[in-house]
Design goal:
Elements lengths: L1 E9 L3 H10 L6 E4 L16 E2 L10 H20 L3 E2 L3 E5 L2 H16 L5 E3 L1 H7 L7 E5 L3 E3 L1 H14 L3 E3 L3 E8 L2 E8 L2 E12 L5 H7 L12 E10 L10 E3 L10 E4 L5 E10 L11 H5 L2 H5 L8 E11 L11 E4 L8 E5 L5 H26 L1
Parallel strand pairs: 1-2, 1-12, 2-9, 5-14, 12-19
Antiparallel strand pairs: 3-8, 4-8, 5-7, 6-7, 10-11, 11-12, 13-16, 13-17, 15-16, 18-19
This protein binds flavin-adenine dinucleotide.
Length: about 375
């Protein structure tokens, strides 16, 4: 049996569904294909839920632009649609002279990216966070927290309302370029099927490089190969969440923004994520990395947290383009017409701040889709 669609989207994470909620607006026939039993089971539900302000990323990068735009779109979306959020702000704190120098550079970067940031005096640091220790800090008032499950569910509901069809337990196993579009082969518990589509959008998260490869793209030459980073979270027990008034972050490390304070909309306190590279997907977590947590800058900044307060809690796995030891890598959001694949849009390496950027990425991809469908129509 084969189905025809205007647009097929691979992946029902926050990115695939945010895009689906946008591209369905034109009344098109849109299918979302998802290998899991339901939506948002991978990166989109295993993250820090932070609405980032656009502090960390290279100037003029897609990450910097999408994060800045996504930040304000996300607050509007949450406010209008009853999605739980807290615009609590965050403090980035230095605990040594070396870190204080890095802090200045990070502050400048945030400024350059257009993120509102403000240096704090020692007195302000104590007033805002009496239980935090540090020698210098700046404040980011537009950083916040969102209930990521409600956000993803909102995008799903919106897309469905606009007529999107979603197929769960439907794994894409092959893609073939055919005249006028793509033949997408899928595996479902009831059998194997294919679907024909004019536009194909790859939002397969951890597997988006593999999906790109299915179309014949050499992912090594294209620099699309993904590396997986496992991020572990530890819960902080003993009512210590009441000793903190906002998010608190250290200086970023080579691989991530560093082990930081994570608060959810119910003000549950966790530390994490502690990232390291992995080759397989396993969300198991034990206390074997507790020492690394205890040695993190966050423990120096928050001395009221005792080692015995920390319990292993959960883990997430992120899809990064950056290999171990490499520098900054930007999101890849690309219409692959110059690789002989018109109508195929790749989103690869949508790591952090992907959650924050989701509404901006949806707009961006929607413009691409409008343009390419108009061009296709003009060629008929
Ligand atoms: C530990 C961690 C902390 C993070 N913290 C933050 C944060 O605080 N703020 C922030 O902005 N961002 C954060 N991020 C990043 C953010 O979570 C991601 O950028 C975002 O969730 C990516 O969404 P996605 O839809 O691209 O991927 P996913 O949520 O992984 O969705 C991809 C979907 O594609 C499906 N799929 C894959 N292959 C196939 C196939 N062959 N066929 C069918 N379906 C397929 C998968 O099953 C999955 O459902 C964090 C990420 C992690 C892991």
């Amino acid at each position: 049996m084969s189905y025809w669609a205007d647009i097929a989207i691979i992946g029902a994470g926050v990115i695939g569904l945010a895009i689906a909620s946008h591209v369905t607006r034109e009344g098109r026939e849109v299918y979302v294909l998802e290998k899991n039993e339901t939506f948002g089971q991978e990166q989109s539900s295993r993250n820090s839920e932070v609405i980032h302000a656009s502090i960390y990323y290279e100037k003029d990068s897609l990450k910097a632009k999408m994060c800045l735009e996504g930040n304000s779109l996300l607050y509007q979306l949450c406010e209008r649609n009853g999605i739980a959020y807290k615009k609590c702000g965050k403090i980035i704190v230095a605990t040594s002279d070396v870190e204080a120098e890095e802090l200045e550079k990070l502050y400048e970067r945030g400024n350059d990216n257009g993120a509102p940031v403000r240096m704090l005096s020692r007195r302000e640091m104590t007033r805002l966070e009496p239980n935090m220790k540090g020698i210098a800090a700046f404040f980011s008032p537009t950083t916040g927290i969102v209930d990521s499950y409600s956000l993803v569910r909102y995008f799903l509901g919106k897309a469905k309302e606009n007529g999107m069809q979603v197929a769960f337990k439907t794994e894409v196993i092959g893609v073939e370029k055919v005249s006028g579009g793509y033949k997408v082969d899928v595996k479902h518990p009831s059998g194997n099927y294919s679907l024909m589509t004019r536009v194909l959008i790859n939002c397969a998260g951890l597997y988006s490089d593999k999906v790109a490869e299915m179309t014949g793209i050499n992912i090594n030459e294209a620099n699309y190969k993904l590396h997986w980073g496992k991020g572990e979270y530890y819960s902080v027990c003993g009512g210590k969440n009441r000793l903190i008034n906002r998010l608190i972050y250290p200086l970023p490390t080579a691989i991530s923004v560093g082990v930081h304070v994570c608060l959810d909309v119910d003000w549950r306190l966790r530390l994490g994520p502690l990232f390291y590279y992995v080759d397989e997907i396993s969300y198991k977590i034990d206390d074997s990395r507790k020492r690394a947590f205890l040695e993190s800058s966050m423990m120096k900044a928050l001395p009221f947290i005792e080692p015995s307060d920390l319990e292993p809690e959960s883990a997430g796995i992120i899809a990064m383009l950056r290999a171990e030891g490499e520098g900054f890598r930007d999101f890849i959001i690309r219409h692959e017409y110059d690789r002989g694949l018109p109508g195929f849009i790749n989103l690869v390496g949508i790591d952090s701040p992907g959650l924050t950027s989701s509404p901006a990425i949806a707009r961006y991809v929607s413009h691409m889709v409008n343009e390419l469908l108009e061009n296709q129509a003009n060629c008929l």
